[in-house]
Amino acid sequence: MIEVRLHGRGGQGAVTSAELIAVAAINQGKYAQAFPSFGPERRGAPVQAFVRVSEEPIRTREKIYFPDVVLVLDPSLPSIVNVTAGLKEDGLVILNSNKDEKELRKMLGGWQGKLAVVDATKIALEELGLPITNTTMLGAFLKATGLLDQKYLEEALEERFGRLAEKNKKAMARAIKEIKIYQ
Amino acid sequence: MGKRIAKEVSIAVAEAVKQCKVDVIAAYPITPQTHIVEHLSELVANGELDAEYITVESEHSAISACLGSVATGARTFTSTSSQGLALMHEILFIAPALRLPVVMVVANRALSAPISIWNDHGDIMAQRDVGWIQTFAENGQEAVDLVYHAFRVAEDRRVMFPVIVNLDGFNLSHMIEPIELPDQEQVDQYLPPFKPKYKLDPRKPISMGPVGIPEIYTEAKKAQDEAFKNAYKVIVKAWDEFEKIFGRRYRPIETYRMDDAEVALLIMGSLAETAMTAVDKMREAGKKVGLVRIRLWRPFPLRDFVRAVKGVKMLAVIDRALSPGATGGPVAVEVRSALYQVPGRPRIANFIAGLGGRDVTVEDFEEMADKAYFYMKKKPKEPYEMIGVKE
Question: Among partner residues B6, B170, B277, which is closest to A38 by beta-carbon distance?
Answer without folding.
Answer: B170
